[in-house]
Amino acid sequence: MDAVTVDAVVKTLGSKRVLDGCSFSVGAGSITALMGLNGSGKSTLVKIPSGLERADAGTVKVAGMPVGFGVPPSVSYLAQSRPLHTTLRVGEILAYAADLNDEFDIGLAMDWVEDFGVSLGDRCKNLSGGQHTQVALAVAVGQRTDVVVLDEPLADLDPIAKERVCERIALMSAESGRTFLVSTHVLAYVSSICDRIVVLADGAVALDIGTTFPEGVRLDHAALEAKVLGALRSTRTSSAAGRERR
Question: What angle do CA 144, 149, 153 make, to 5 degrees?
């Protein structure tokens, strides 16, 4: 069963058609990486199953149910902007999240931030960019939802933290069957944990590839990188040709 299905989705922001017939699916319990050049529509797309944007045309379903406005109860979402109340302490942020959601696993969230060297007594305004991201990640994964949508979760993190975050995501998916849709530019880290890679180009899917052979053997990173970079380079070439024709 698919946890998320995106079918012929169209979305226009202002005068720009950001998504143009975008279609793909995310299997239940899987990890899917969503990639693309800057401005390809990744952030807009992940907001739709999260209930923060509505498609102009096409359908998006979570667990078989169409998504409208409002975050579905089975979805948690990490925004690229990482909004946190800067005057609060980290522990207060987590306590507030628990007050809003009876299902929030504050123990999991506290363990997450402390494991990455963030003190519960730290004020959010004093956190580094990477620490800020870790607190926002803790809030997202602490929701205990079936589907976790993460927009650029590795941004601002150092290489070791990137690796450990990916390991934690893989462990949570394996142990609890949670589904992850991850928008990212960092193929080197996610290629070892994701089940599928979807590349967006000009608002549509340019590449949708599994990361394992039918026998269960994982494709090596070099092979995946070649396919992804090929799709991205093709996108850039096509876009440049389109500008020249205009």
Answer: 105
Q: Which residue type occupies 119?
A: S
Length of the chain: 246
* 218, pLDDT greater than 90: no
CA-nearest of 83, 73, 75, 34 to 206 is 34
The CATH number covering residue 226 comes to 3.40.50.300
pLDDT at 108 over 80: yes
- Please say if the pLDDT value at position 54 is more than 60: yes
115 assigned to some structural domain: no
Whether 102 maps to a domain, the answer reads no
Residues 222-226: what's their mean pLDDT? 87
What's the DSSP call for residue 246? -
Give the total number of structural domains in the chain: 1
Asked whether residue 221 is assigned to any structural domain, the reply reads yes
Range of the domain at 217: 2-74+148-157+179-245
Please answer whether residues 124 and 57 qualify as being in contact, where contact means their C-beta atoms are separated by less than 8 angstroms. Answer: no
C-alpha span between 17 and 35 (Å, rounded): 18
Burial (CB count within 10 angstroms: exposed 0-12, middle 13-18, buried 19+), residue 242: exposed
Whether 173 is covered by a domain: the verdict is no
- Of 18, 16, 20, 26, nearest to 8 by C-alpha is 20
Whole-prediction pTM value?
A: 0.91
d(CA 31, CA 68): 23
Mean pLDDT of 140-148: 95
Given a contact cutoff of 8 angstroms between Cβ atoms, the answer to whether 139 and 99 are in contact is no
